[in-house]
Amino acid sequence: MRNLAKETNNTLRDSVYSALKAMIVTGQIPPGARVTESDIAAKLNVSRTPVREAFNRLERDGLVTGRPRQGYAVTEFDINMFREAFDIRELLDGHATELAAAAATEKDKARLRAMLAECERLAAIADRTTREKFQELEVGIDLHRVIAEISGNAMLHGMLCGILDRCQHYVWTELLWLDEWKIARDEHAEIVEAICAGDAKRAGALARDYAQLGGRTLIAGKPYAPVYDVAMKEVAEILGRPGERRQVLAIGDGMLTDIKGAADNGFDVLYVSGGIHARDYGDASQPDPARLAAFLDRHGYHPVAVIPRLR
Prior knowledge:
CATH class of the largest domain: Mainly Alpha
CATH topology of the largest domain: Four Helix Bundle (Hemerythrin (Met), subunit A)
Structural class: mainly alpha
CATH superfamily of the largest domain: GntR ligand-binding domain-like
Number of helices: 12
């Protein structure tokens, strides 16, 4: 942990806020955990004043909730808030990006390209630490803030920044679980390319797709990253074409919540790798395709393909 004690007041406030936010977003302080000003002040080697200010900002961001005489509680996953945040983000991000494509100056374009280059620099670091990964996440999120700033609409910029603060934890989870760092960088590059070309229609569509698909992936439940390579290969064979990662939900244990999440969000392919609960749709050692199909039918979920596999 870096020593923040010697930084100037303004820098110290921002540094404490960023450090505490990073601990929450990356799960070092887990959802539901109780945290106090004194605990964080000791951990960061600072006084309680900048910590108190940081908690106030994080409460406005929706990342913590103050509890009288009990400190703060880290916000737990709220599926309704999640849906609402990503729905609003899709609308605001798309509109802001369209406006930015029409308004961007050469200086603005250079600024956006520099942010892409910074993401590539961070991605090239071997054996990255959690902090270095979080830095790439921050640059990626800030790219959308800057695009909204370039749009010239101050109210839109303010609203989108608030929504992005609430989405950060979920974006981090998506990047980490699905290892989608390169996909995110490529999609950001496409958005910036469209803005620099002055193609407002394409830029807005790309931004809306980026926001929508990100929410659609995460809301379905925790995917199991190690089975993705195998899943994608088999999906391509079944569909007769390469599948997109965000169209495929690959899970490692067939949990009821994951299946229900896939049903709610209409994933094209469900890839189940691992033990299955007998009371739901199979026995513990081998997925039973017939029982799995019956379970899915009860939920009205009919994906293009269902691929049950052993561990």
